[in-house]
Known about the structure:
By secondary structure, the protein is mainly alpha-helical. 52% of the residues lie in helices and 6% in strands. The protein has helices spanning 12-23, 29-32, 64-70, 79-94, 97-119, 129-141, 146-153, 158-164, 172-187; strands spanning 36-39, 42-46, 51-53. Strand 2 and strand 3 form a beta hairpin. The longest helix is centred in the middle third of the chain and has 23 residues, at 97-119. It is elongated and about 65 Å long. It starts with 11 loop residues before the first helix and ends in a 16-residue tail after the last helix.
Amino acid sequence: DIPGLWSVSVNIWIGIIVYFRRILKLDDASRYFPDLKLINGKVHQVSDRTTKNLEDPHTDGLLRHFMNYLNPSASTIDDEEVVNVARLIFWSQENPQLYDMQVKLAVDIAKSKLKRAIQKGVHLQGRPVWHAIWVSDNLHQGRAKYTQLKSALNSANVDRAMSTVGISEKYPNRIKVVRASIKRLEDRRVFDSISFGDGEFDI
């Protein structure tokens, strides 16, 4: 995992590679990652002698080249990992666009997951926005299947059903955080007279 980055995917590396594709387009990218370049939209490591496509998938389907670039050892904290994390943190502090791009990417991925859920029969259009928050968090953590989410939404007590759907009971602290976040938004009346699918909540 990379500190400071929102966990944008069940497979964190897919999310990070998309993030890198975006930030490497910034004018100051070469200052922080001088050996990385976008070639045909893909992240490459470039030296005087070689050019390596870090997005070439391994036989196991994982982005091993990119993973090894950022974090060579999965079992220890090595110098390369420390340096790369420091680069990202320092770059984020120096260029606020990186924070904005993290938020934008997080929103894009959340929307794509919700859109996929709707296509799979999880009816959200016209429902209270907090229903979509529950579904989104479930999808993000992978706690429930589409069929289970659909049943939870159709229950008499959606909040209770969403807090126990799938393997949710294994994550009581997570459930508390979701509930508390929804309550804060409701107390601030953020969702008054708004349903999922309206205005900025349209996907």
